[in-house]
Amino acid sequence: MLLLGTKWSVSLSFDVGAMYKRGISIPTAANGTTYPIRGTFTDVGSGLGAISIIIGNNTRTGTINKNQLGLGTYPVPRVTPAMVNSLSHLQTNVTGNIQQVQDSGYTYTVQLTINHTDGTTTPIIVNNIPVDSSGNFNVTLTSAVEYGDTLFSIVTAKSKSNTDYIQSVASGLQSVRWTVNPVSAISVLGGETQLSGNSVQTDRGVYQAKLQINNGTTYTTTLNDNGTFLFSGLPVFQGGESVRVWIQGISTRTGSPLLVSTDFIRTVSYPIPQISITQTVERKNAQGNWEIAPSVVTGQAVRYTLKTTLINQPAAWTNQQLKSSIPKGVTQLSAASLTKTSAAGLSVPIIGVQLLTDTNLNTQYWYYQNTLAANNFVEANTSFTLQYTGVVADDMADQPLAFIDTINGNDGGGAAISTQNRTTTLPVKSGLLRFVQSPTQISFTKIPVPSKSTTYSPTNVNSPLVIADGRVTKSQWHLLLRESQAMHSTTTNKTVNQAFTYRKNGVDYPITALASQVYAYTATDENNVEITWNQQNGLFLKIGPDTNINVNESYTAELQWILSDTPL
Questions:
Q1: Average pLDDT over residues 549-557
Q2: How far apart are CA 568 and CA 483, in angstroms?
Q3: Angstrom distances, CA of residue 391 to CA of 302, 527, 537
Q4: pTM (two decimals)
Q5: 424 and 438 inside one domain
Q6: Are 351 and 331 part of one and the same domain?
Q7: With bands split at pLDDT 50, 70 and 90, how would you rate the model's confidence at 54?
Q8: Do 227 and 372 fall within a single domain?
């Protein structure tokens, strides 16, 4: 038992070098100046030499006034941590170098400690990795490292002659790296239910593509080995949606994401509106009804209809513009009407159609531009119908009517769409009852001086006799013939009156100075009607003995064809 007034002291010493040779390294003082020390005196029992402590306050503290307990010149190798080469995701081979000159009296090995990012509490320790004479080491792990795993190394030098061994301090933590490249391009259009894209990766790993639409639902798909991905079965893109696409690297241990790329953000293009253009030209027939017009005639009333229809969904056609050129030669124009018809078939009139003039082409056209949101097309099968009437001018025979239409406007996002042009042409025929062709020369040759009344057929007719009735309202027409100049000698003043006859169904009718009907017909269309001549029908020369007829003498006469639509 200590007597009152008795004092004790403790002398503490240790050999840093001896500790170092047992693998113990003392780090630099934590506070940078001194090492703290502490001791507590306790009762060690009774008997000879026993120390019995009965007075409290037996703990004492102190300091070692050094900031580092170094080896100084102590004759042992200095062992430092190894340098481990950079580690990549899913790598299994670890290499490095101890970066120090090896003492020939010692054998050097490396210890690696790997901490998993998946939360596994027990680290993986790989011991006794041999070091070659160049300081290099190499080890194959039983399982691959993943992004986020950390690793540190310790180098051990073991004496070849005794039990001494020297161990370095632990190296700094080294993390496994992994680069996840972002999306480089996507393809998505309004009206579709899929989105595709590309993101080529340079590091090994399991990747997924992620998609978020308008900061809402998130979708996941696989990133293929070639860097492509496809999201299908999505809600129909209307156009204007904001899409965010990124790539995430997936843990092969847990299936959870380890790393994500930067975002690729785009706005979905609005669908391009597909617009059908229908051009219809009608003519008014004899009954006063409108019918499809394969052709028209001068003086005939025509009705033109332009129909433009939005045919794809979803899509929008906004700020619509219609330009319908009026063909040259269409006169007596009516006002143009414009009607909007919904997909449900509800029609409403639209105002604002203007009749304008193109001063460069000296033509007129109907023009409409929509300025009201209510008249935008946002549903398939919505249409505009523009219609007007006119009359074909009399001087337009054999000149086609050209109906030229131009449409444009914007899509649902306000971007201009491509201008569409459409042209339809219509042949124009004469609207008159007319001769298409008529003979200007009829020859009778080698005619002998007759001894009795004889009928002769023409030896040559230089043109057929063709008539066409272009009138919209057909009625019977009549062909008349008269002798406007009697047959007479070309060298003398000898004249033979009424030398011609017109035969109808085998019956001859004399041709006189008074016009008489030789043919009548009621046409059903404007096609040509050719009047054929044969032995039973046509023009003949009929002469008999006459003092005014001489041998070897030429005669001439003039006949007049008359076409009439007036009943006789």
A1: 93
A2: 19
A3: 6, 21, 40
A4: 0.68
A5: no
A6: yes
A7: low
A8: no
pLDDT band with cut points at 50, 70 and 90 for residue 33 = confident
The CATH code of the domain that includes 322 is 2.60.40.740
pLDDT tens string 380-407: 999 999 999 999 999 999 999 999 999 9
Alpha carbon 431 to its chain's center: 50
Domain that holds residue 357: 275-429
CB atoms within 10 A of CB 19: 14
Give dist(CA 196, CA 207) in Å, integer.
15
Residue 73 lies in a domain: no
d(CA 510, CA 486): 12
**How far is Cα 22 from Cα 19, in angstroms, rounded to an integer?**
5
User: CB count, 10 Å around CB of 167?
Assistant: 18
Number of separate domains in the chain: 5
| Residues 395 and 281 placed together within one structural domain of the fold | yes
Same domain, 170 and 37: no
- The token pair at 341 is 């018809």
Do residues 440 and 548 both lie within one domain?
Answer: yes
- What is the model's pLDDT at position 512? 96
CATH of the domain at 201: 2.60.40.10
First to last CA, the chain: 169
Determine how β-strand 428-429 pairs with β-strand 296-297. Answer: parallel
Q: Which CATH number goes with the domain that contains 104?
A: 2.60.40
- Same domain? 438 vs 424: no
Q: Let me know whether 417 and 442 are in one domain.
A: no
- Residues in the chain, overall count: 568
- CA angle 244/248/251 to nearest 5° reads 160
Higher pLDDT, 114 or 53: 114
10 falls within a domain: no
Contact 79, 167 (CB under 8 A): yes
- Read off the pLDDT of residues 207-266 as tens digits, 9 standing for 90 and up: 999 999 999 999 999 999 999 999 999 999 999 999 999 999 999 999 999 999 999 999
Q: Are 381 and 310 in contact (CB under 8 A)?
A: yes
Domain end point (choices 371, 406, 429)? 429
Strands (E), 80-175: 83-84, 93-97, 106-115, 124-130, 136-140, 150-159, 165-167, 174-175
Distance CA 350, CA 336 (A): 11
8 in a domain, yes or no? no
Residue 359 included in any domain = yes
Which DSSP string corresponds to 236-297?
A: PP-S--EEEEEEEEE-TTT--EEEE---EEEEPBPPPPPEEEEEEEEEE-TTS-EEE-S-EE
Question: Angle CA(477)–CA(482)–CA(486) in degrees, nearest 5?
Answer: 165
Q: Measured between alpha carbons, how far is 3 from 434 in angstroms, rounded to an integer?
A: 159
